[in-house]
Specification:
Layout lengths: L1 H17 L1 H17 L39 E4 L12 E3 L4 E2 L9 E4 L6 E3 L6
Antiparallel strand pairs: 1-4, 2-3, 2-5
């Protein structure tokens, strides 16, 4: 889908600006894996991220979780999308920091987070 391809490229560029050395490590590692794999497949050709998860639906929530398989000093890009009112829901909850909505993600905004260090979930949204 073109929209997800654009988001992937956008978050990758943000990552490159925000953490250039880490971006280079991601890029080098992913290229090495793709070069040495029998069946290389890149999620998006404009991204250094090896995987993506999409929470789709009018009332999507996630349970508190950590992404243990990620690089311990790595970052994950979270992008808020959809037709919801951020004043009425869609909260990003960082459980181990005891934060609810301290990070206010409005539609179309992205944020990099060290998701192996944080126990996070997102809350129910009120559709517009």
């Amino acid at each position: 889908m073109p929209a997800f391809w654009r988001i992937s490229g956008h978050t990758s560029r943000l990552f490159e600006v925000f953490a250039p050395r880490l971006y280079t490590e991601y890029s080098t590692t992913l290229n090495n894996i793709l070069t040495n794999s029998p069946d290389p497949a890149k999620l998006y050709d404009n991204s250094v991220f090896a995987a993506a998860t999409f929470n789709l639906g009018p009332r999507t929530v996630s349970y508190p979780h950590q992404d243990w398989a990620n690089l311990s000093w790595g970052l994950c890009a979270i992008t808020a999308l959809g037709t919801y009112n951020p004043d009425l829901g869609g909260d990003l909850v960082l459980w181990n920091l005891r934060l609810l909505s301290a990070i206010f993600l409005t539609k179309k905004h992205a944020i990099p987070l060290p998701n192996i260090l944080l126990v996070g979930s997102d809350g129910w949204t009120m559709d517009i």
